[in-house]
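Backbone-to-sequence.
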């Protein structure tokens, strides 16, 4: 290889390394930004279930070993013997909700609500499951009904504000829900989060003007 060829080869290697470094740097920045955004996204209040990872067993409801699938099989066997039991139907919905199987959760919440239609906690979780399925209008309809049945329900106000904001870009509606929540439930467990979201929306509203 001649000196000229070696110089060209070396120059090309440096150029490749520079491009690779720049690409990695940009990828790292993008990943960091997405991680920051994900961590900053507010979560929904889960009322009938407990979380997206844990399953709670009501007193007197035996759950078999083997995780959620075993739990569901046990509960479905009990529902077959007692099909009009809203607590069992709700709990199956909760198990599916916690496993992020939202279509199945909606199915069992709906069955429970045909028996006990005024259960605002179950209706709120059903609305949130609808939201996770991409059905903002259905979610809002469930929240509206839950607040009709139990006015000023804290978690329903919290969640409806989130869907109004994230699903409908309705800042005024979200602010109305969250300000009302702070007024009627000043000791709400997620008070700091709500106050921060109110401040963020007020700041955005002020930046864009009336």
């Amino acid at each position: 290889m001649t000196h000229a060829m070696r110089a060209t080869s070396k120059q090309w290697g440096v150029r490749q390394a520079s491009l690779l470094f720049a690409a990695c740097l940009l990828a790292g920045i993008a990943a960091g930004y997405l991680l920051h955004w994900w961590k900053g996204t507010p979560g929904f209040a889960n009322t009938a279930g407990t979380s997206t990872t844990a399953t709670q067993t009501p007193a007197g409801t035996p759950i078999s070993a083997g995780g959620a699938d075993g739990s569901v099989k046990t509960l479905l066997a009990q529902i077959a013997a007692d099909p009009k039991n809203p607590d069992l139907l709700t709990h199956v919905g909760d198990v599916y909700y916690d496993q992020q199987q939202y279509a199945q959760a909606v199915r069992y919440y709906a069955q429970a609500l045909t028996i006990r239609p005024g259960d605002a906690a179950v209706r709120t979780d059903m609305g949130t499951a609808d939201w996770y399925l991409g059905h903002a209008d259905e979610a809002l309809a469930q929240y509206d009904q839950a607040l009709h049945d139990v006015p000023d329900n804290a978690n329903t106000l919290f969640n409806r504000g989130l869907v109004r904001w994230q699903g409908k870009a309705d800042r005024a509606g979200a602010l109305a829900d969250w300000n009302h929540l702070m007024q009627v439930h000043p000791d709400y467990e997620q008070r700091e989060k709500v106050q921060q979201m109110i401040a963020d929306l007020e700041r955005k509203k002020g930046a864009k003007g009336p």
